[in-house]
Amino acid sequence: MAKPALPQGTRDFPALVVRKRNHIFSTIKQAFELYGFQPLETPAMENIDTLMGKYGEEGDKLIFKILNNGLDRSEKHITAKNDFEKLLEGKTIKGITERALRYDLTIPFARYVAMNHGQLIFPYKRYQVQPVWRADRPQRGRYREFYQCDADVVGSYSLLNEVELASIYSRVFEKLKINVEIKINSRKILAALAEICGGAEKMPDITIAIDKLDKIGLDKVKEELLQRNLSAAQVGIIENFLKISGGNESMLHQAEELVGNTESGKKGIEELRFILSYQAPNSNVKIDFTLARGLNYYTGVIFEVKALDVQIGSIGGGGRYDDLTGLFDVPGIPGVGISFGVDRIYDVMEELNLFPDDVITGPQLLFFNLGENEARHAFSLLQQLREKGIAGEIYHESSKFDKQFKYAEKKAIPYVVIIGSKELENNSCVLKHLQSGEQQTLTTGQLLTYSF
Fold it and tell me: Per CATH, which fold does 15-41+103-351 belong to?
């Protein structure tokens, strides 16, 4: 019999971890609801044509494909002996795999809008909290199955949406007590960079390479750009762009000198200025021209959030995608959205010990089981306490005191209630606080009104 194991890049979540994760989820959801977003859920799997070609060259390689049910190599639709070999290379073989696990929540959302745009009220503001899957190489902060928390607005070109999404980021991370920098850039500025480096067709090559800057460094990015048939002079222009530094206004001025003579560059700079005009002087929203967001569907302002006190990848990201539903033959519906990386946020909060004490809660009390009559009385009292919202347990069988005390200690239950034959006769109980060792005798009425 095989030894039980988890698939690589996945995890189990015991009770304590689930409670901590729920604290993150609830904080994010409260912010979404506060800003007028409504919940949505979509299936774990999508038709493969819905997903493929939407994430760029690198993203498409990470999509988990699902084999059709009942597949047999002898079936007629398998025409070549190397079909499975092609499948393992990342190709899609009709008849073998026609569905895939969702890579993110944005494309399924765009598919939903395309299918239901006639019934939606625009601007349509939705949030979504569900798992996604990527065939990535697992490492710290990067998993093959993980949750995303997205908020998107579709049906509006207004940059006030970007302002509000940046505000949601600030609010959530302030509530979670994580010091962050909210980085912004514009794909329009990157499009202008491509324009002065040979044309719009260079855009994917440039953004894919720039997106790897944090991982491989500037020299390797320059090598990759040369391998993608950009000239040394063009790579030099890109290098100068990536070296722009200083405060927000200084960086915008330097960008104007480099790409401001193009229509796209001018528009992108104007949009960044608009968003920054809504920020307080000490705002954590900062321009970062090295930010590329390698996904092909972004068209305007893009976001990325970095934790300042921990070495880890981005803990949030997003941007504008003004023609995403056009991928599904429903053009003219603009959109913008952000996403929270819950798994990395958890790792940051765990490392910095940021979870509040009241998150780690379980049963408040344990009723000892000291016999059939005593247990019946204890159960009745426990049910009355539960009606008051007090979580508790009764030990599952009559056992020695030592065994029941150890059970409460191991589960970090703060109070035990002891009802023996004497207490049953006197309609009383012994309440003991395990951490302090304090013990008191209470009447039944006193127990039911006790402040736990």
Answer: BirA Bifunctional Protein; domain 2 (3.30.930)
